[in-house]
């Protein structure tokens, strides 16, 4: 019931939620990341490491399934050029228990931030800039360590 | 023994001006860090990309590794900035 | 941007997510609760305290908005007779920051469990049974206290 | 002074056999707990519903209150089991 997609195309959270709702659990949690259009951002460009990305995200999903009793996990991460308001990432989890679904969802998005081989470049009208990793993101991911 | 493929991402790739290259396999005791130092010594974009090793991360055969990891018989070494996905 | 509905009718999480995605934040978190069909459950009957429910849930939402920088909150809680697989509750949050969205979502569902005036009765083929409050649920809600 | 409206939910309602009733306003120093004890003394469904005060919760004018709260001039007292929403 676990599925990972790394894709350029947009996705439909409704379709993903419906599949998770049908997995027989009592709770479905989701997180959708959206490109913020702040500071005059024109577009975000996401580069990734194709040979590594899928395997790495699947490892993160397996770790989540190991730690929480999940009935389904769905991760979608986009790459390429994305404009403000566009979806970047989706994490959905289904479990018999709400806490498991919510915690696993938070864990997955924290780990994607600091362990999935993606890099973001911001395009403004007059310049481009690589997004710097945030120390807090790394700390967040570390905080899940057992 | 086969060559080693180097792959670069984000501003490392941009500074070096290529996303991939093959190099001669380094000595048996070489680590990621010693290879990066050797590459930096090439000057130009390499010196720029590898000026601050603390800002770099690496993966051997698609697994994150610390900078002091021996390269061993890995086929691919990726060098890149800290990731910013999610 | 905060909206609460207490209703007998089903709802469409896709519509709710779309509205939250449009709120300008970088992250949208959601939780959907579903009736589990375990132990031969035929239906769940949800009773509530109409004069109190809306005001109480709005207080909980206001508390969440006070504690996290949220751009939007959506809570839907159903009452009446619900069959296995049907949605019971939806909590959606939008924020500039993923952690705020996720934490507020978890806070809201924990508080709905132990502070919203709803009571669940389980209908089986041969008997009915009022669901007992779980000590853990109360502990979960208490754990958010500042 | 106006009467007090009592409202019951879940198995409290079922045991008593009604969802609402009006009672004479209790003495000025009455608390939720003393009123519940007085109701339990009616016997029958009341005795059953209120047999274990630790299993009951209350709200005065739609606000949760502890059992030792004075009823004061509240218009509505709700008595019910611990909630099970969400």
TrEMBL record, chains A, C:
<dbReference type="Pfam" id="PF02391">
    <property type="entry name" value="MoaE"/>
</dbReference>
<dbReference type="InterPro" id="IPR036563">
    <property type="entry name" value="MoaE_sf"/>
</dbReference>
<comment type="function">
    <text>Converts molybdopterin precursor Z into molybdopterin. This requires the incorporation of two sulfur atoms into precursor Z to generate a dithiolene group. The sulfur is provided by MoaD.</text>
</comment>
<protein>
    <recommendedName>
        <fullName>Molybdopterin synthase catalytic subunit</fullName>
        <ecNumber>2.8.1.12</ecNumber>
    </recommendedName>
</protein>
<dbReference type="InterPro" id="IPR003448">
    <property type="entry name" value="Mopterin_biosynth_MoaE"/>
</dbReference>
<comment type="subunit">
    <text>Heterotetramer of 2 MoaD subunits and 2 MoaE subunits. Also stable as homodimer. The enzyme changes between these two forms during catalysis.</text>
</comment>
<keyword id="KW-0501">Molybdenum cofactor biosynthesis</keyword>
<comment type="pathway">
    <text>Cofactor biosynthesis; molybdopterin biosynthesis.</text>
</comment>
<comment type="similarity">
    <text>Belongs to the MoaE family.</text>
</comment>
Automatic annotation (TrEMBL), chains B, D:
<dbReference type="Pfam" id="PF02597">
    <property type="entry name" value="ThiS"/>
</dbReference>
<protein>
    <submittedName>
        <fullName>Molybdopterin synthase sulfur carrier subunit</fullName>
    </submittedName>
</protein>
<dbReference type="InterPro" id="IPR016155">
    <property type="entry name" value="Mopterin_synth/thiamin_S_b"/>
</dbReference>
<dbReference type="InterPro" id="IPR012675">
    <property type="entry name" value="Beta-grasp_dom_sf"/>
</dbReference>
<dbReference type="InterPro" id="IPR003749">
    <property type="entry name" value="ThiS/MoaD-like"/>
</dbReference>
């Amino acid at each position: 019931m676990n599925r990972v997609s790394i894709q350029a195309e947009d996705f439909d959270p409704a379709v993903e939620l419906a599949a998770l709702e049908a997995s027989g659990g009592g709770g479905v949690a989701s997180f959708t990341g959206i490109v913020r259009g702040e500071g005059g951002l024109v577009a975000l460009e996401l580069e990734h490491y194709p040979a590594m990305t899928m395997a790495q995200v699947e490892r993160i999903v397996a770790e989540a399934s190991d730690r929480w009793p999940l009935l389904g996990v769905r991760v979608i991460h986009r790459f390429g050029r994305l404009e403000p308001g566009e979806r970047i990432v989706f994490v959905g989890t289904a479990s018999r228990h709400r806490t498991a679904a919510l915690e696993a969802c938070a864990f997955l998005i924290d780990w994607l931030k600091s362990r999935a081989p993606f890099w973001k470049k911001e395009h403004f009208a007059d310049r481009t800039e690589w997004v710097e990793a945030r120390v807090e993101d790394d700390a967040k991911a570390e905080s899940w360590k057992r | 023994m086969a060559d080693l493929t180097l792959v670069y991402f984000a501003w490392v790739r941009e500074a070096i001006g290529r996303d991939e290259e093959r190099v001669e396999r380094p000595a048996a005791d070489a680590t990621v860090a010693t290879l990066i130092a050797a590459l930096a010594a090439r000057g130009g974009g390499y010196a720029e990309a590898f000026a601050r090793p603390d800002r770099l991360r690496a993966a051997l055969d698609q697994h994150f590794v610390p900078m002091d990891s021996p390269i061993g018989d890995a086929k691919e070494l990726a060098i890149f900035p800290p990731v910013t996905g999610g």
